[in-house]
Inverse folding.
């Protein structure tokens, strides 16, 4: 079994997947958003073809833990995704993951164009790795 991590955004969805031992997360892809139904079908295909047993959707909370409009959109997306696929969908606090991704890419001396292309995938990887690490502590 693998776990899929998603960084849901207005224009793109970053995709990461765990290894089969559920130890590490690897950035996989970035889905260019078109319309919700099509996005859900693409994700269903990833879930079905990779033995995914659980999906984690990043939850963009405000720094004080409250919901924003983006948070509500992510919750709605997770709810619609759960209706589309046959595995559990959970949300996971993603505060500061985009900042972590940007910092890592800046330290790697990446160009602005490369950073833009990779940031969603890397944010999904950070979200998923955080979730995997929390499972080890339990």
């Amino acid at each position: 079994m693998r776990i899929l991590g998603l960084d849901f955004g207005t224009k793109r969805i970053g995709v990461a997947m765990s290894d089969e031992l559920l130890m590490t997360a690897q950035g996989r892809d970035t889905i260019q958003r078109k319309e919700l139904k099509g996005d859900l079908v693409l994700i269903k295909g990833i879930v079905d073809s990779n033995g995914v047993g659980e999906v984690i959707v990043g939850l963009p909370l405000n720094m004080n833990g409250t919901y924003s409009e983006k948070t509500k959109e992510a919750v709605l997306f997770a709810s619609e995704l759960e209706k589309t696929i046959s595995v559990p969908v959970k949300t996971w606090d993603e505060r500061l993951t985009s900042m972590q991704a940007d910092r890592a890419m800046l330290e790697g001396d990446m160009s602005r164009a490369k950073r833009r292309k990779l940031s969603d995938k890397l944010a999904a990887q950070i979200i998923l790795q955080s979730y995997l690490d929390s499972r080890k502590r339990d």
